[in-house]
Amino acid sequence: MKIEAITVRELQVPLVHFFETSFGRTYSRQILLVTVEGEGLRGWGECVAGENPYYSSEWIDSAWPTITRYLAPALIGKTVTQGREAPAFMEKVRGHRMAKAALENALWDAEAQAKQQPLWKLLGGTRREVPCGVSIGIQDSHEQLIDKIATELAAGYRRIKLKVKPGWDIDVLEKVRARWAGITLSVDANSAYTLDETEHLRNFDQFNLLMIEQPLWNDEIHYHARLQKMLRTAICLDESIEHARDAAFAAESGACRIINIKVGRVGGFSEAKKVHDVCQANKIPVWCGGMLESGIGRAHNLALSTLENFSLPGDVSASKRYWKEDIIEPEVEVSRDGFIAVRDEPGRGYRVREDLIEKLTVKKGVLRAG
Ligand code: OSB
Ligand code: MG
Known about the structure:
Layout: E1 5-21, E2 24-38, E3 41-47, H1 60-75, H2 86-90, H3 97-114, H4 119-122, E4 129-131, E5 134-136, H5 142-154, E6 160-163, H6 170-179, E7 185-188, H7 198-202, E8 211-213, H8 222-230, E9 235-237, H9 244-253, E10 258-261, H10 269-281, E11 286-288, H11 295-304, E12 328-329, E13 339-341, E14 351-352, H12 354-360, E15 361-368
Parallel strand pairs: 5-6, 6-7, 7-8, 8-9, 9-10, 10-11
Antiparallel strand pairs: 1-2, 1-15, 2-3, 4-13, 12-14
Helix pairs in contact: 1-3, 9-10
This protein binds 2-succinylbenzoate (OSB) and magnesium ion.
């Protein structure tokens, strides 16, 4: 399609429950959405950057000017019929992968509509249902955490991931394992430890964890390889993997045994597919990470999760865990046994509630061709 207009919106939406990681607590999300329009089509994309530059250097207030001043102007007026053509138009801009992903994914969304094909099929997916886990943040008390885990297990989720940091780790894991010896359990440190804490991290081995996610520095792979040799528990990399070359290096150096793919973190569906393929070739299973997405990012994550090597339960869970009301229809729902069924409608498979989006919008910009 010939791109006639790109709209950028910022929504402000409170979370049903705060979410705390080793780098801080979030009560409300600033959600950046883009639409790419032309020839009667409208593709939607979500920029998953956070409210602060804590998970990554990229954040909502860097994504807005990067999109409006550089990335959208690089696409406006151009003919882009396939999502995979998008990265070439934006390659002059270094980094800013989450901003790029929002636009590229909107183009895949539009392409799937144009081809009257489900997005998941267009991406090369094969799974009809996606196994789901949940990511549970740091709570105010151990009791509160135990209650949360009980709720999520009762809802059917197939894997529990706990956020950890120094002071919220070994004691917590002891309590959780004392109550549930057999559940599939992971932890995510979001870079809260250093190599000096190797002995402390070795204590995690006693809890039979599926993985420990991103224990060390966000921009480091080599030292994770050193740590992996010292741990029985599998390391999973999240923050450290920004593109397929990182995945190849991580595999080659033995830095992890699992990789979390976030489509925003790697710059869009094209690169996410490449990371997936590199991992598959190296026998590294992957799963789809989450960034507290609204329904649009969530629908896109689900489509990606249908690719063959997404063999571990991801962090993509039901809309109602995050939102009082999601901006898609139907909302994302999880079956009693912890799966999300893939939808066969053309495109993303979930209708966008534009009326609700308009109500939640606090900032909006439109760029037009000519
Ligand atoms: O590291 O996976 C992470 C949320 C925000 C930033 C980073 C992470 C997370 C999550 C939540 O773990 C995943 C989700 O439920 O969307
Ligand atoms: Mg993570």
